[in-house]
Batch of 2 targets.
Target 1
Amino acid sequence: MIMNNSAIKSYRYSRQRQRILEFLQDDFSHPSALELYQALKPEMPSLSLGNLYRNLHILEEQSLILKISPPGSNEDRYDGHVHQHIHFRCGSCHKIFDIDMLPDLKNTFHTLSQQGFTTQEMHISLGGTCPNCAS
Ligand SMILES: [Zn+2]
Ligand SMILES: [Zn+2]
């Protein structure tokens, strides 16, 4: 099989992309691009920050990952869990916690759809102190 240069390149990018997606799906820390780069670089020596940003952008456009900008943080983070959930960022340890939607909020969506609204996006971010840091 003969592959031209760009075919080899796109093959390599898509394999990298698959691995980036898997990493994010297994990870619950909502890493920044730099943290992702540091975690993946040892197993992907050919990875550059430019590749990584390009792949993250494509994954985001395909709705396979979320890019989140938590309050109090000036760094974008990435989330491989795209079900509807809320983020809580602890101001002390800077961890980001996934919070499930409570019934009240689900009711809000239900009411909206009864009123004819179609909701495609939700951005709810909370900030404060996590139980570990509060005690
Ligand atoms: Zn904390
Ligand atoms: Zn999350």
Target 2
Amino acid sequence: MEWCGRPTAVVLFQGCDLRCPWCQNVDSVDPKGGKITELKNIIKHIKELLPMVDSVMAAGGEPLLQPKACLALMKRVRKFGLECGIRTNGTNPKALKRVLPYLNFIAVDIGAPFTDTELYGKMIGRPVTGIFLQKIKESLRIAIGSDAKVEARTTIVPTLNDRKDIIEELALDVIGVDWLRFQQFRNVSILDPSFRELPIPSRKELIKLARTAKKKGVGGVRIFTIEGGLEEV
Ligand code: SF4
């Protein structure tokens, strides 16, 4: 489901500069975790998948913490006729610009409205300033201004961003994307154990928030839940 409707090989990059308490990629966050792999090994594996995939998606962790490796990967797989996508937290717009010519799809995580530094900080597990959020905003603008399809992704976390007024503001921040995707917070295998007490928002709640966003003029709105999988609202 990293790249909707596409048979995609997903390459997970180790390490992330954020610590979203609801993060489910727990093993990918620590920059010292994982194992070092040579590009040729990844390419070999992708070649084996070739009859089954038409694209490669860089995800993680945060792939743009390793821009050289991202670039090298994309240049190689493009030669096999594969399209390239990336999922990024948006904190490194300069690195995004470097890989931009190779991208057909960009998913950018957006935690909260850009004006709400306190809430954004809670969503990503570290205090942030307006200047820091400008970087994410810039990444989103770079993505929207490119030829790639763009999806803003927001995990709906109870007690943080699951409010109508917050979603209305967030929707206005991402106008211009092809899709806004709301993902359901899960309370197992997540980074911050204190979040395990929170309830999982229902599919119905996500649909309601998706309709709220749609009314604000966002192009396509999708939700991703355990109950219904990926759905267009
Ligand atoms: S969810 Fe947050 S902490 Fe986890 S990989 Fe994505 S940006 Fe990093």
